[in-house]
Amino acid sequence: MATTNITGSLYYLPFFIFAFIIHSLFRNLLKPGGNQTKLPPMPPALPFIGHLHLLGSVLPKSFQTLARRYGPLMRLRLGASSCVIVSNTAVAKEIFKTHDLSFASRPEFGSSEYFKYRGSRFLLAPYGDYWRFMKKLCMARLLGVPQLEKFTEVREQEKEKLVESLMRICREGKMCDLGSELIKLTNNTICRMAMSTRVSESNSEAKEVKELVKTCLALGAKLSVGDVLGPLKILDFSGTGKKLAEAIDKYDQLMEKIIREHEEKASKGFDEYQRKDILDILLEIYRDPTAEIKLSKNDIKSFMLDIFLAGTDSSVSAMEWAMAELINHPQVFNKLREEINSVVGSNRLVKESDIPNLPYLQAVIRETLRLHPPGPLIIRECTEDSEVKGFMVKAKTRVLINVYAIMKDPEEWSEPEEFVPERFLENPEERIGEHQMEFKGQNFRYIPFGSGRRGCPGASLAMLVMHTTVGSLVQCFDWKLEEGDKVDMSEGSGFSAEMARPLLVYPVQHLNPFS
Fold first, then answer.
1. CA-atom Rg of the chain in angstroms
2. Which of 2, 361, 408, 487 could bridge to 324 as Cys pair (CB 3.0-4.6 Å)?
C-alpha cells in the first residue's frame, strides 16, 4: 500500500512542478503596470524562492532589517507564499484600530489540512459568531478575574514547588537548566487550572497530554514552514502531516477519557466550596440548551489544546529572558531585590497581592517584554481590500505585524536595544497604573500581547505568573554561570526569537522563606 501511494505521488509530481512554474510566470507577467493600484513596496525577488535568500535565521530581525530599507509596510514572497510586513507604530495603529475589523481574522497554515479540529480552533478561527462567543467566554469566565482569583492558591503552590526544587539543586551544588524548571511550573499551573491535575504526578493523564501537545507544536511548525512549497506541500514528502494526524488522534482519545471523568464528577454536583476548572466550565456550557453558541466536544478539545499550546512556552521564554537580563545587569538585579525586601520582607515569598506595591518589578517585566516579546510576530489576514498608509492591501493577504521591530524602533524609544527598566518609571506616558495587570494594546508602540479584537486573552494570567516567579527567583537566589559573568543573549531561529541556548545556571541560596 505504501509503495502504491509513493508511486502515485511521483506520477503527479511533474504536473505540480509545471503548475507552480506557470503560476509564478503569470504572477510576474500580470504585476501592476497599467494597473493604478499602489501596492506596498517589495525588494527584488528571485524566481521560485522569492525573498527567501534575504532572510536570516531570526525572522523578526530579518524583517526588521529589510523594513529599514523598504519601509514600514512592505511585501515579501517566501517561495509560493506571500505576505505583508508591518514594522512601525503608525502602520500598526492603522491595522489594529482604523482597520481592525478588516484584519480581525487569522490565516490557516500548512498544518490545517491534517488538523482534526479544523473549524473549531479559537486561536485561528475566522472573525465571526463562534470566535466572538469564545472571546467573550474567555474574558468573562475562563480567564477572567473571578476565575483567576479562584486559582490563586494553585499558582502560589506551584511557585513554592519551583523554589523548593531549586533549593534542592542548590544544596546539591548542581547546575540547572532554568528553562526546564520554569516549564514544570507553567505546565503544572496550566494543567491544574484547566483540568485539576498536575503534569508531574505518576500515571498522570496530564503528562501524556503535555507530551502530545509538545509533539503537535513541533510537527505543526514544520508543516507551516512547508507553505513555501505551495501546491507541492500536499505530497507530504517527509510524512510530517501523517505524524501530526496520528498525534492529534492520540490526544483526542486521551481528552475523551478526561472529559468522561469530568462529566462523572459533574453528575455528582459541585458544592459551594469546589472550584470549577476550565474544562468543567466548558462542559457546563456544552450541556446548556440555552447557550448562545452550541459547543461541540471537538470545540472543547480544540480549546484545551489551544490553552496548552499558548500558555506554557511563551511565558517560559519571557521569564528566561528576564532572568538572563537581570544576571547580565547586576545593578538592576540588586535594585529589584532591595524593593522586594522593603515591601515583602524575608519571611515569605512574593505574592500576587504584592505586585501593585512593586513598581520596579513591574518595570523589569515590561522592559523584558519590550526587548523580548513572547510573540514577536502577530499574524493576521486581511478580509477585504484595505488602504493602509496610502497602499492597497488586498483581501486574503497574510499580514505579519513585527512587534519585535516596533518595540525596538529608535524613533519611538531611546536606547532601544538596551535593558533599561527605569524608562517605565520616569516617563509619565509609560508609567504603570497601580492596578494595571494586563496590557490593553492601545499604546501601539508597546504591544507585547497584541492589540485590537484579537489581543491575547491570557495576558492577565501570564503577567501574574511572570511577576511572582521572577520576583521569587530574585528574592531567594543569587545566580552563577559556569563560565564568565554574562549570559549569551543570542536569539534562536524561526518566528519565536527565544533564547538560542539553554539558560544553564547555579542557584546560590540567598534567602530561605520556608525556614
1. 24
2. 487
